[in-house]
């Protein structure tokens, strides 16, 4: 479930992209120095976001150095590191170990089992540094996998995964309650989007996917039309209008177009001009051919509403946090990056990959 929280390169300024890259490189170097060179292969955009968010929120001493690495041996590159780089490195190890362990069990994969075995020593070290956090994540993951094996409801599954990401976002600072809530909604968004991304592959293979009932029955999993329904509501709910309802129409409206959270700048993200002109060539045709448009797009509409209600909640929390440093980078990830990634899923395409940072 990694890869859904990343930047939109086209919307970042050059200097902001350099800062983002330096945090990414900082996490990579810390994984190498604290654990092993092989651990650097686990560096990902999601935990880089966590590192940037916490660094921007709390006043900390961030070291900026220039270093070489195996990927870029010829030129020294800027590297930013602080206490949150350490924290993100530990969380990377804890998450990846648990994921490999579960995949090895479910898929009976010797390769993933070997990967988990190779990470065992690093996992013990990370767990010793964060025993309470590690235990809670491990407990939630076990409950999540048990529920998936019992064909659990999307609400319960998304809540569990949201709790896991919420725990990750609590670093022991004064804003822990707010960062937990941000991580909670972000995690639910990730779980829903990951299930959406895999729905047709899982249906073809006959594997579990919590969104299958939505697809097969052509209705919201909570009853009614699926409009303004929060993923945390009770199944069969009344469709009561939630706090994010009206604003979601602006925030997530014209998904392929995007726009700013305040409703301005509609149709900016279509690959056209800010005034809405110059619509991205062939995007509409691709969408019409996409399997997500079968049933007249009702399934697409349901899932989009669910997913973007979660992101609207996360963005609202981000908006009240006193973040001064790197605010535009974080905003880009939570808004532009999310839309661009979701857009690629709906079009049935792989997102344009970032170059190895």
Can you tell me about this structure?
By secondary structure, this protein is mainly α. Helices cover 58% and strands 3% of the residues. The protein is built from 12 helices and 2 strands, in the order ααββαααααααααα. Strands 1-2 form a two-stranded antiparallel ribbon. α1 crosses α3 and α9 packs across α11. The two termini are 20 Å apart. About 20% of the residues have low confidence.
Helix and strand arrangement:
Layout: H1 14-34, H2 45-57, E1 63-67, E2 77-81, H3 83-107, H4 110-129, H5 131-149, H6 154-168, H7 176-205, H8 212-217, H9 245-251, H10 283-289, H11 298-320, H12 327-346
Antiparallel strand pairs: 1-2
Helix pairs in contact: 1-2, 1-3, 2-3, 2-12, 3-4, 3-5, 4-5, 5-6, 6-7, 7-11, 9-11, 11-12
Kindly state the percentage of residues in helix: 55-70%
Q: How many separate helices?
A: 12
What's the shape?
globular
Biggest sheet descriptor: 2 strands, antiparallel
- How would you classify the helix and strand content by structural class? mainly alpha
Strand order of the largest sheet: 1-2
Q: End-to-end span in angstroms?
A: 20 Å
* Assembly form of the protein: single chain
Give the amount of beta strand, in percent: under 5%
Number of β-strand runs:
2
Instruction: Give the overall average pLDDT.
Output: 79
Model regions low in confidence, pLDDT < 50 over at least 5 residues: 219-290
Radius of gyration: 20 Å
Order of helices and strands: HHEEHHHHHHHHHH
